[in-house]
Structures are given as structure tokens and as C-alpha cells.
Design brief:
The chain is mostly helical and 241 residues long. The chain contains eight helices and two strands, in the order ααααααββαα. 44% of the residues lie in helices and 2% in strands. It comes from Eucalyptus grandis.
């Protein structure tokens, strides 16, 4: 089953496209401001070079006393850090929630099998088309024409919710990844695919697997309700008659 979504990228006020561009430029402005503030602090000796990563970059100078890492590079690195932090932390949060809600799976989860999960594939799919981003020529895909110059956006959750790839896609079932060969090429595209595939995918696998590994091997889920703030109770001995 092929599902499709169409967007016309016209920058009209109050469209999602407009707000996404607006949000993107706001984030960049905020980061630029932050870098400027840190530069001032460094110049006034109100901060140390090792206080944080941006300070560290800003304090590196070459023999001509020029900043080694440019402001533009600092912005890129900071955006990569956001890309790397939120994705993995959200993934861990969701895995914890799903394991909590599915105690049977939590008990059974064979962590070494999660470690084996890898994506692979050759054939052309939506994800593949999406990698082309801006079509350099007319592309005919399953009878749908993507004209030259048009963009293709893919929504990975539509692929992941495709029942022909993952039966009962909304069910939390880590065992479905046991047999990697059963997943069709580009069926699992958490990290995208093609030349712009996520460069942090291997790192993300490790940093999410390590806490989950320790969680399933060293901790257990206590099904009893526990007062989150502790229980303040004053116990007074009975008066002896
Ligand atoms: C669970 C964690 C992660 C997920 C689900 C994820 C997902 C993705 C996806 C789907 C893309 C492709 C976006 C596109 O089509 O343009 C991407 C790109 C990218 N990711 Fe990740 N990512 C994760 C973790 C990380 C980490 C840990 C890093 C860095 C250490 C990272 C750095 C990047 C960068 C720099 C790009 C842009 C690549 C390019 O455009 O050439 N990501 N990520």
C-alpha cells in the first residue's frame, strides 16, 4: 500500500511552511545571540574558556589571534547537538514508557536481539525518493509524477505504520525485529536512508541501548504503588494501661 501526502511549498503567512521557516530563523537568531553574549563574557573575563562547549570553541585562537572555530561552525555544531540530544532522549523516554506499560515484554526483552537491529536495503522507495529532495528531473513513481524542481517529503511514521511492512504496527512488539530479513528494504527508516542518512545512527544505537540494557538487566519494575514524595507518618506508641 502506498500512501501519499501533498504539500505545496508556498511561503504564505500562517501556513505550516511559514511557521517552520519562522521557527528555524528564530532558533538561529537565538543561538547567534547566545554566542555574542558568551563572547562578551569571555572578553570581560566573566567566564572561563572551559565553562561550556561554546566558550571552549570561542577561546581557541590561531597564531594570528583569529578564532579557530567560526561563528557559523559553532551554530552548526550546536544544531547537531540538538539533533543528537532530543532524538535519543525522546527515544529512551518512549522505550521506558512502553516497557512500563508492557510488563510481559519487559520481562522477556532479549536485549542482545535489540543490539542486532540494523537497517539495510537496495530498492527504490518513498524514503529513497525523499533523499532526492529536489527532483532534478521528472520522476515517475508507481504512476505518480513528481515534476522536475518539485520537492518530495517523506514521513517515516507513515512507512512504519504501513501494515504491509509491519503487521499490527501500533502494537509494541520488539520481537518483530528478531528476524531482520523479514523487514523489507527501507521498511525501517528511523534514521532516513541514502546519502543523507543520519550520521549519528550508530552512536544513537549505542547511547540508547546502553541505558536500556542496564535497565532490563539490573532493575526490575515494581508493580506496587509507591508514594512519590515518601510517606510522612508519625508513629506514637500506645499508652500502656
Ligand atoms: C534516535 C536518535 C536519532 C534519530 C531517530 C535520528 C534521525 C535522523 C533522520 C531521520 C535524519 C535524516 C533527516 C533528513 O532526511 O534530512 C537525521 C539526520 C541527521 N542526524 Fe540524526 N537521528 C538520531 C540521532 C542523531 C545523533 C546521535 C546525531 C549526532 C551525533 C545525529 C545527527 C544528525 C545529523 C547531523 C543529520 C543531518 C545529516 C545530513 O543532512 O546530511 N542524529 N537524523
Amino acid at each position: 500500500m502506498v500512501e501519499e501526502m501533498w504539500f505545496i511549498l508556498v511561503n504564505l503567512p500562517f501556513t505550516c511552511y511559514y511557521w517552520s521557516l519562522y521557527a528555524s530563523s528564530r532558533v538561529q537568531d537565538m543561538l547567534k545571540e547566545l554566542v555574542q553574549e558568551k563572547k562578551v563574557k569571555l572578553a570581560q573575563h566573566a567566564a572561563t574558556p572551559h565553562q561550556d562547549l561554546i566558550m571552549c570553541f570561542l577561546s581557541k585562537h590561531n597564531e594570528e589571534n583569529e578564532q579557530v572555530v567560526t561563528d557559523k561552525e559553532i551554530l552548526h555544531i550546536t544544531l547537531v547537538m540538538i539533533a543528537r540530544h532530543d532524538t535519543s532522549s525522546v527515544l529512551i523516554t518512549f522505550v521506558l514508557r512502553l516497557l512500563y506499560k508492557n510488563p510481559t515484554i519487559y520481562k522477556a526483552v532479549p536485549e542482545e536481539e535489540i543490539a542486532k537491529s540494523k537497517t539495510s536495503g537496495e530498492s527504490l522507495t518513498w524514503a529513497d525518493l525523499a533523499r532526492m529532495k529536489l527532483a532534478l528531473r521528472d520522476i515517475d513513481y508507481c504512476g505518480y509524477l513528481n515534476p522536475k524542481g518539485w520537492q518530495v517529503f517523506w514521513a517515516s511514521n507513515m512507512t512504519h505504520k504501513d501494515e504491509s511492512i509491519f503487521p499490527e504496527p501500533s502494537e509494541f512488539d520488539p520481537a518483530r525485529f528478531k528476524n531482520q530479513k523479514s523487514i523489507q528494504p527501507y521498511g525501517f527508516i528511523l534514521f532516513g536512508g541514502g546519502p543523507r542518512v543520519c550520521p549519528g545512527s550508530e552512536f544513537a544505537r549505542i547511547e540508547t541501548l546502553v541505558p536500556i540494557h542496564y535497565l532490563v538487566t539490573k532493575y526490575y519494575r515494581d508493580p506496587l504503588p509507591v508514594p512519590t514524595q515518601g510517606l510522612l507518618l508519625w508513629i506514637v506508641p500506645k499508652i500502656q494501661e
